[in-house]
Structures are given as structure tokens and as C-alpha cells.
Amino acid sequence: MNFFILFESIVLIQILLISLYDLKTGKIKNSFLLFLLITQIIYGYLIGYEANWETMYGILAIVLISFFFWFVDLIPSGDSKFLVVSSIHLFFLNNYNEVTTVWIFLLATFVPFSISYLFLGILRAIKRNREIIKEAFLQSFNFYNVFMLAIVFIGITGFATDFLSYFIVLQKLGVLSWIIIILLMLFFSETLMKISPINLEYIYVLLAGIRILLLKDIIFSLEFLIDMTFLVFSYIFFRFFVLKISYELETVEIPIEKLKPGMRLAEVIIKEGKTYKKVRSERYSLSDYLKGKFLKAIHSTSEEGLSKYEVRKLKKLKKENKLTFETIRVYKVIPFGIFIFIGNLLVLLFIFSGFKIY
Q1: pLDDT in tens, 202-214
Q2: Could you state, in order of their start, the residue ranges of all structural domains in the chain?
């Protein structure tokens, strides 16, 4: 046990140092991640760890999830790679199976992040304007959102879940497969909503109706209704309410003249005819992310931020009075690395304290 504690301490110190560097600079160097990876490979070799299919499923799960979070701009690319690399040593402890380890690690990482993010967002919203919370609640929990989400989950997502559940790889992922399927289907649904020439609401209602007829005994059961209610309201809470609140936390309004390379705009600038206008874009909103892509913004919408050329271009447009607005919102850097360290620390505390999940 002392050997495990020694190496886990070394790995944890490395993760902490990378997190602190991210906290200070807002960046994570690939060289740091490579050194952390090499340390864990040596660690695994010395303890004689033998990788198996369960290990591959666990790594596949964390890679897919971190890639998805990066793709929708939930976390930067550096943090996405950090999330994957920092989790490898947890598989060596053999306290849980690999997929359960991934599941616990993600919960231990994102729950503290979500709670602190929500708390700070609400605190700042109250300080600025209490009406922001009321407005966010009314806009989020309206009848249309609740009804359409229930229809989507029962219909297209339900059919897709039934279909994908036949794949052995997803069966091996256990509870995690359900989350992956939901994320993939939400991505698929919101993508279609942005690019489809027809109104998909009618298709959603039709598919939900068919599935209700086929599985009416299950769908109208008390257990299913409770699960569906929890799923719908949880999704609305995080997808709409938290996003609207967090927008106040992580953005700041600055004059166009003060834009700098690397800054990421929280409002997408588009050109309509001969005029330019700005459209609010929430970085954690998949539909807004896609909207920024399909609206053909005149600047980069990636997490890398504005280039030097784009900054000069926007300032030139402002100087020529082609941009009629004086200010624009930009995202503040919110380091995620420290929460990856917290997630690792919590998992190790669970394991060394003998905490079990059955």
C-alpha cells in the first residue's frame, strides 16, 4: 500500500502543478501532459498492471466524453486532453471496474464545478440584478420547453437508445452508455433543428406517439414518469437556466477598440446585407454553438479566440463606422484544470477510505 501511496502522491502532485499553471496562465502545455503520461506508464509497469478489454472500454468512455465536451466548447482542448491523461492512474487501483472508475471520476470532477459555477453565477446575478434570475427561470421552465423535451426523449431519443443498446460496446459501458447515448441524440437532434429545411417538431411528436402506442404499459408506469420528469427538468435546469445565469458570470462587456488576440467573443458578429449585427452566443449551449457556425460569423468562434488579423479587421470596421455598436461581450478565462485535480483527489479519497459502490 505504501508503494501505491508513493506513486499516487507523485501523480497527484503533478496534476496539482498543472492545475495551478492552468489557473495562472489559462493554458496547459502538451509537454506537461506528456510528462504526466510517462509517469503513469512507468507507474503501471512497476506494479505489473495488465490492460484488458475493460481498460479499453474505460479509456474509450473518457476519451469520447472529453472529446464531446471539447467539441461543444464546454472545456478547452488542453483541459480535454488533461481530463483523459489525468484519469489513467485511477485504473491501476482496481477498487472499482474501469467504467465505474470513469463514472465516479466524472462525477467527482463536474459536480464541484457545476455547484461552484452555479453558486457564483447566481451570486453575481443577484448582485447585478435580481430580475435576471426570475427572467431566466420563466424563460427556461416554460410549457414549450417542458413539452418538447418530453416528446424528444420519449420519441427519437427513446428509439435511438433501444437501437444502440444492442451494441456490445455500449452494453459494456453500463450506466455510462445511457449518458453517452443521450448526449449523442441531443447533439443529433439539435443539429437537425439547425440544418433541416422542414419543421422537425411534427416528426418528434409522430415518433413519440408511435413509441407510446408500442410501449404504453412501460411509458405510463409510475417509475417511467418519475424518471422522465427528473430527466426533463434536470436537462432544462442545466441546459437553459444555468446557462442564462452563468452568462452573467463568465462574460464582460468591453469596447471594440480594446479587443486583443486570443479573446473569445460571447456575441457572434454576422453580416446581413451591408450591415453588421451581434448575436448572443452561450459557449455551453450546443444550439448557440451551432448557430454561430451556420450564421457564418465574420470571425472565429473556436475556443482559440480571435486572431491578430481578426482583431485588426474588427477595429477597422469600427473605425469605418460599419459596426454600429460600441461594445461587445467577451468570455473571461475560467480555468477548469483545478476541478480535474479535485476530481482526482476525491476519487483517491473514496478508494483509500474503502468507499464501495454496489
Answers
A1: 777 888 899 889 8
A2: 2-96+336-352, 114-250, 251-331
